[in-house]
Amino acid sequence: MNNDGPDFGLRALRAFHAIVKTGSVTAAATAMGLTQPAVSRLLAQFEQTIGFDLFYRDKGRLVPTPDGLLLFDEADLALGTMERVRALARDIADFQVGQLRLVAPPSFAEGVLPDVIDRFLSRFPKVHLTIDSRSVETSKTLIATRAVDGGFLKLPLDRPDLTSVPVANSGTVCVLPIGHPLAARSWLDPLSLKGVPLVLLGLGRLSRSHIDAAFARAGVRPEVRVETHTIGSACALATRGIGVAIVNEMLARSYLGNRLLMRPFRPDLRHEYAFVTSAMVAPPRLALEFLSDAKHYFAQQPKDVLDETAGSPV
Amino acid sequence: MNNDGPDFGLRALRAFHAIVKTGSVTAAATAMGLTQPAVSRLLAQFEQTIGFDLFYRDKGRLVPTPDGLLLFDEADLALGTMERVRALARDIADFQVGQLRLVAPPSFAEGVLPDVIDRFLSRFPKVHLTIDSRSVETSKTLIATRAVDGGFLKLPLDRPDLTSVPVANSGTVCVLPIGHPLAARSWLDPLSLKGVPLVLLGLGRLSRSHIDAAFARAGVRPEVRVETHTIGSACALATRGIGVAIVNEMLARSYLGNRLLMRPFRPDLRHEYAFVTSAMVAPPRLALEFLSDAKHYFAQQPKDVLDETAGSPV
DNA sequence: ATCGGTCCATAAGAAAAGTGTATGGCCGTA
DNA sequence: TACGGCCATACACTTTTCTTATGGACCGAT
C-alpha cells in the first residue's frame, strides 16, 4: 500500500485536534476521557512522528504554530469523514440504513404480508424494502443465487441450496357466496361437491394434484368450471356464483369481502409456507428481522378455520 | 467529544479496506506488510466492534456483505482524506508548503537579499515568501508581535522581546566616481574630505551620528551637499559627481555599477546586521532555514573592502 | 514574596493491543 | 486421496498506551 509519509494513529490525530479546539492539553484530555499525561504523550509522539512542532510551548501553554494550524484544517476534515464512517457503521448496525429484497407469491404478498411489512417498516423506517412476485422456480433461483435476500415459498422444497423456516400452516377451504345452498353445511368434501361447479387453481401444482386425488379417492369427478391462477381471481369468480372455489384458507381470508364465506374442505389438505433463504451463506440480518416479524404475525393469527368451527356438520 | 458509536482503529479500517480491494485476507496482509493471521484478527475485531458482519464466509472465502459494501464506500473516502493528512504532514515537514514573512531594509532587500532569496527558493520552491520593507520601529514591532516571522535589522537592538543573530558585518566606504581626484588615495578620512561635497544619508539615524562625530573629532565641518535616505540614491548622486557618498560598504556594492568606486572611510565605522526574530517563542523552522541561507551567503562574501586594500595610502 | 492553583512534561508500572509462528479445518483440484 | 490455497484460532512475545505519581514553570492573589 502507500507506505510513504509518517504513520500515526487515529488517537494521536484526535488528540491534536482536541488540543487545538479546546486550547489546552488538560481540556482535551477530559474531552477525550483520558488523563492529561496520556494526551501529552500522544501529542509528543505525534509531533515526533510527523517531524515538526505543532505548538509553541509558550510559558507552559500551548500555542499552535502556523504549521500546526495548516495541518489542523486537514485533520478536521479527515476526522469528520472518520466520524461519518463511525456513524454509518452505527446506522448499519441499528438497521437505520439498508435494503431488503424479498420474493413472495402474489396472494401471499397481497394477503398476509402487508401486516408484516407494516410492522417491519415501523421498526426500521429507513430500510428500503422490495418485494417481488415471481414464479416459484424463478423465486427459488433468485433466492439461491442471492439475487434476493429471501422469500416465502410453499413447502416442501426440493432444493438443497435453500434453507427454509416454516412460518405458516393453513388448511383448505371452500369459498362460496353467502346464500349458497352448501353454506348450510359446516364442512364440505368431494362427495358433497359432486356436480357442484368448481373454481380451481394451480393446474400442475402440487396442491392441485392433492385436490384432484381427494376427488379421485371419493370416486367423484370434479365439475371444474374455471381454472385460474390466483386466489384473488378464484374468489372473484366465486362471488359471482360461477363456482365454489377450493383454496388455501389463510390466503383466501383477504379476499372474502362481505359476500363470501368459507367452509372447511375435507380431507384436510395442508398448505405450509416457509421463509426461505439461500443455504450457501447466512441470511442478511434484515431478512432475519423480517422473518421474526412474520413469525410474530402468524403466531397471533387464528390457526385455522377448522379450529373455529370444530364440531360436527350441521 | 463524540463518544457514541463504535470506536475502531485506523489499522482495522485499513485492513477492511484492503481485504475488500484485494479480495482476500492473505492478499491484504501482504499488501499491508503483515501476516495473514494479523489481518484476520484485525477484521474479526473490527466486525465485533461495529456489531455486524462485513463478509460472508463462503466456503472459506470472504465475500463482502451488502452492509460491508455499503461501509466500504465510506471507508474508502475516509482513508483517502487520512492519506491527505499524511501527505500534508510530510509536505510541511519537507517545506513543500508553507509561508515565510520577513522584513528587511530596502537597501538590504535590494542588495544582498536577492542572492539569499534565490538560494532559499531553490531549496524550497513551494514556499510562499514575503519580504516587506518598513521603518525600523515598525519592523521591530512586526517581528515582536510575530506579524512577520523575522527580519534583518541593524545592531544594536534595544528591545528585549527580540532575539538577534548577527549575520553581516560591514565597514564604511566613500563612494566616488571614477576619475575623482580622491580616487588616487587608498583610503579617506574626514581630514581628506575637508571641503569635499558629500552625500550623506540617514539624518537622525545612529550611523549618521557616528559619521558626524568622526568629522567633529577631526575638527572638520562636513560639506554636506545632499541628504538622502537610501544608499541607492546616494550612489546615484555620487555617479553624477554631486558629491562623495559615505555609506555602508556591503550595501553600496550593489549600486556601484561601472562608474563608481569605493575607498575605505576612516575611522572604521562598523555596520552590523542581524537576523531578528521574536524572543517570545522559537522562530518558525522556515525562518531558521532562511537564516541558514543568509549565513551561508555572507560567509562566502569578501569580508570588507578594507581587507582588499590593506596597506598604506597612495 | 510566598502560597495555591493551573498547566505541561516525564517516569514507572500495569494493562491492552498488536504481531508472528504454529496449527487445524475447509474446500477445490490434480 | 493427496496437495495447495484460504481462513480462523492458540499461544507467546513485543509494542503501544494507559494511569498514577511527581516535578517544574507560570500566574494571580494574599
TrEMBL record, chains A, B:
Residues 8-65 form the HTH lysR-type domain. The keyword DNA-binding applies. It comes from the Bacteria. One of its GO terms (biological process) is positive regulation of gene expression. Keywords: DNA-binding, Transcription, Transcription regulation. InterPro entries: LysR_HTH_N (IPR000847), LysR_subst-bd (IPR005119), NocR_PBP2 (IPR037424), WH-like_DNA-bd_sf (IPR036388), WH_DNA-bd_sf (IPR036390). Pfam families: HTH_1 (PF00126), LysR_substrate (PF03466). GO terms for molecular function: DNA-binding transcription factor activity; sequence-specific DNA binding. PANTHER family: TRANSCRIPTIONAL ACTIVATOR PROTEIN LYSR. Belongs to the LysR transcriptional regulatory family. This is LysR family transcriptional regulator. It comes from Niveispirillum lacus. The lineage of its organism: Bacteria, Pseudomonadati, Pseudomonadota, Alphaproteobacteria, Rhodospirillales.
